[in-house]
Amino acid sequence: MSIAGFPVGQEMNVAYPDFKISLKLHSLTQMSLDIAEGPFAHKETVSIDVQRLGNGIFPLNSAEESGATDANVQDFDREVVHLITLCAEGR
Hints:
Elements: E1 11-15, E2 20-25, E3 30-35, E4 42-50, E5 57-63, E6 69-75, E7 80-87
Antiparallel strand pairs: 1-2, 2-3, 3-4, 4-5, 5-6, 6-7
C-alpha cells in the first residue's frame, strides 16, 4: 500500500510548546519517536494511521505502549506539523 507524496524515510524534529520530539517515518504503518528530555522522555516505534488531505498534507494518528495518543497534521509542503490532540493518559 502507498499514498502518493507521503515521505517514507523522512526524519524531522518537531517543537511543541511543552516538548521537542524527533520523528522518523518508516512506512504508512510505523513511525519512530524520540523525546529526549522532560516528563515524556522516551524512545518508541509506534503504529500509525495515515490519510491524505492534499498534495503534501497528511493527518496522522499514533498510539504509544503507555496509552498516550497523538493526532497531528503533517504539512510537508510548508514543513510544519500541527498538533491536534495529545492525550498522555497512561504516563
